[in-house]
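User: quick one, fold this
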Amino acid sequence: MHAKLFERYLLVLRVLFSAMLLASAAFYVMRSIHWEVMWDTSIMHDINFLMRQGLAPYRDIFDNNMPGAYFLEGWAMQVFGGGDLGWRLYDYTLLTVLTASLVVIAFPYDWFAGVYAGILFALIHGSEGPRNAVQREQVMTTLILAAYALLFTGLRRQRPALLLPFGFLIGLAASLKPTVAPLALVLLGMAAYGLFKRKVRTRSYVLYGLAGLALALACNVAFLLRYHDLAAFLFISKQLIPYYAKVGNQPLGTLLVGVLPNKYLRFLGFGLLLTLLLKPRLEWENWERVTLGIGIGFGLFSYLAQRKAFDHHAYALYVFILVWSAIEFSKALNRRSWLHFVGLACFAFSMFRFLPELDSMLRHVTPDNQQADAMETDLRRLGGFSLQHQVQCFDMVDGCYGTLYRLRLLPYTTFFGDYMFFQPPGNPSMSWARGIMAADLAQQPPQVIVVTNMWLSQGYSFNKLQQWPEFAAFLDRNYHLDVARQFNQHAYRVYVLNGAAIQSATAPAPRTPAN
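Assistant:
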């Protein structure tokens, strides 16, 4: 085929496939624009609300997240607002930035590879429903990919100054998840190696990169100093963070089996095959390929290190597999040989098999926020805004804290999550948390206690109460069950203090057996 005709043919393919991807992306927006804030995002929103009321993280608010989780969410709430629509716009913005970063990364090979990988990841992310929207891993992965784009552009164009924002963005990612810190140093080392091989002086690049990392670190320190929180952060880092890291962990075999569903194995397998068939033509191209491979290794390391088997913990792994494979597909597609048909088959399989599958999954996603909606109704019935400092949640992310945020209620205590209360005895961190809670309950108990059946280490069961018998006995002596509601596997119970002068159900609902 004539060279110009072949290029026109490739352009038609790229435009056609891009149109299909953009149509699916528009479908995702249409299906998800009405989703409500829920799960981890509702926790971050509520903590930022409490911070605006004068409470300090770590010192007044007991939570295991890193500083970046708070101030990055706070910045997003200032830009997009703290409501449901703002949360959706933030999600779309993150996905747009991630896709643009992938286009920059893939541009010397084929811009379409970046469009393909970015939108496909957005659809995979959307098919998981609202619970994984704007998770910390999504923000972290977006920051890492933007940092990669700046690093690659800085070396391609020999502009050392671009490594300043590279260092800053990947430093911010490390302030969300400390597992990113080794990746930042490895990437700087890889950049120095790539420049050395091309006989380019490395000093200015490395200094700019280190300056960016230092700037990100300064943001974290400034955040802690603003709230006079440095000592409290170090204390919580010793108490809750290591404890949370050990709760609900899955065996290594379970993690490995679950980390790569078949659809990702397809990408990985075809990408490996094409890597063997295609040889890099330029030294910088080889350097970039290795650096993207390091990204895949980091994604796997990050997922395994967290040991929770949550889908969103593998986001970095999935994105790097997608972009690395997409580049290999594009390089094959652009060859005027039999390899062209291999690349075409890989893309066509995604367009005509995988894309409809994701669209179908999006079509059947339901927001499934009935529990939080019902909980809001129950708390409004019991007094609503008058319940300031009178509601204690024993929950992880199953709706209670999100409900308090909706009602703009200040909680009874500021423990976020109940993983530190309902585990087998013997851990010093749990004894510390139980001691604080027991002292508060004995001194002046709250009027309302909400208990969900979400149990970080065991799934969903109210049997978690039996892990803390003293609290279960306190609940039986001093509270009556106002209402118990069940939504598939999710359930919650609302307990009202005996003699509390608040509106309650006409007759307490009968105590239901523990699930």
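User: anything notable?
Assistant: The mean pLDDT is 88.
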